[in-house]
From TrEMBL:
Lineage, uppermost ranks: Bacteria, Bacillati, Actinomycetota, Actinomycetes, Glycomycetales
Subcellular location: Cell membrane
Main location: membrane
The protein's name: Sodium/hydrogen exchanger family protein
GO cellular component entries: plasma membrane
């Protein structure tokens, strides 16, 4: 009951502060994360949760399912074919390189074995546009940069998932390595994610079936719930099913996607905020104090070096100016998908699960605080009409010439 009451009060506060948050460095996501940190057992003890609590697992699964389903709807094949050049570079080159640099840091700085190093690299590779919302949603920012960040963050959660599952299976050791079962789980999830939406959309085109205007936004919700239920029943991978279902709806049902878009985004946002609150509860000053200095050095490399180096290499010859490339390199926030993947690692039972979760949590916390507080500042960098200091105008003229 305390969790529900705290979430309701925080949600009301987030709604009342949402307009201010769009104009300043204030972030509703940071509000929920910080509130969980303060309300958890490590501080005030108002909310008492442990990683083994069923609420944590259920909420994390539902939230990531909703996020991947709505993310998939943003990237139907028609959209990908028409504007794939820059996102393709970020996903095809940038994401694997980010994973590799992060894995190298984990191996040589923290001393993790290669399977665990690759696992933490896969967990921290996805990005989240929520923590750079002022940049993605600001019309002063060049459209190609906004499209790049939006498509990349919408796709990379689903792309990272198979790597997380495979590296997690390898980290479990040869006795527990069941790649055949894992492949079957992913395949079943893929078939459910494609088959259920395709059949539902085909049925709606029959003359006996048609959704009324009032119920049309619920069409996407109904499809998502059927995909979720079948994935549980047939032991398919929930997250692959969610992501492919979203892409299938976007590809074969553009009208249904448009009707569901706003409703689905709000639902996914509610679940994300609830999961961030729970994630904050699991972190405490003592928890963060358990991270060694080498762990914090790894966090710094993962945030300040891994993505910038990967994106710099990926966009060589892409035609982005210095401002656009710098913004793309910086805004790689470790967001909600990394939170859930980190919880999956924690509950996996592998030998280094606790150490990995500490490193993942430290990187996520630092990333959320840094990226969500600098998105407005960088967005103003692209606003030539805004009042800016003289030194800022000189830098902007210099980067414009370059």
């Amino acid at each position: 009951m305390s969790l529900l009451l705290c979430f309701a009060l925080l949600l009301l506060a987030a709604v009342l502060l949402s307009s201010l948050a769009h104009r300043t460095i204030l972030s509703t996501a940071v509000l929920f994360l910080a509130a969980g940190f303060v309300l958890g057992d490590g501080m005030t003890g108002v909310i008492s949760l442990t990683p083994d609590d069923p609420t944590v697992k259920l909420l994390a699964e539902l939230a990531l399912f909703a996020v991947l389903f709505t993310d998939g709807m943003k990237v139907g094949w028609p959209q990908l074919r028409t504007a794939w050049r820059l996102p393709g570079r970020a996903l095809g080159w940038g994401m694997p390189l980010t994973l590799a640099v992060t894995a190298l840091a984990a191996h040589f700085i923290v001393g993790l074995d290669w399977p665990e190093s690759l696992l933490i690299g896969a967990v921290l590779a996805p990005t989240d546009p929520v923590f750079a919302s002022a940049l993605v949603g600001n019309e002063k920012v060049p459209p190609r940069l906004r499209h790049l960040l939006n498509v990349e963050s919408g796709v990379n959660d689903g792309i990272a998932l198979p790597f997380v599952m495979v590296f997690l299976a390898v980290s479990a050791g040869s006795d527990d390595l069941h790649l055949g079962a894992l492949a079957l789980e992913l395949l079943v999830g893929l078939l459910i994610g494609v088959g259920v939406p395709w059949l539902a959309l085909r049925l709606e085109r029959l003359r006996f079936f048609a959704a009324s205007t009032q119920y049309e936004p619920l069409n996407g919700l109904a499809i998502g719930m059927v995909v979720l239920a079948l994935s549980y029943a047939l032991h398919g991978n929930l997250f692959i099913a969610a992501f492919t279902a979203g892409i299938t709806v976007a590809t074969f049902g553009p009208r249904q996607r448009q009707a569901f878009e706003h409703f689905g985004e709000l639902g996914a946002e509610l679940l994300k905020l609830a999961a961030l609150l729970v994630f904050g509860v699991l972190i405490s000053p003592a928890f963060l104090g358990e991270i060694s200095w080498t762990g914090w050095l790894f966090v710094a490399v993962a945030i300040f070096l891994a993505r910038p180096v990967a994106l710099w290499f990926s966009f060589l010859g892409a035609g982005l100016n210095l401002r656009e490339q710098a913004a793309a390199m910086w805004f790689g926030p470790k967001g909600f998908a990394s939170v859930v993947y980190g919880l999956i690692v924690l509950k996996s039972g592998i030998a280094e699960a606790d150490l990995l979760f500490h490193l993942i949590a430290g990187a996520i916390v630092v990333s959320i605080l840094l990226h969500s507080s600098t998105d407005v500042v960088v967005a103003r960098w692209f606003d030539d009409s805004a009042e800016t200091p003289a030194w800022h105008r000189r830098v902007r003229r210099l980067t414009g010439r370059r």
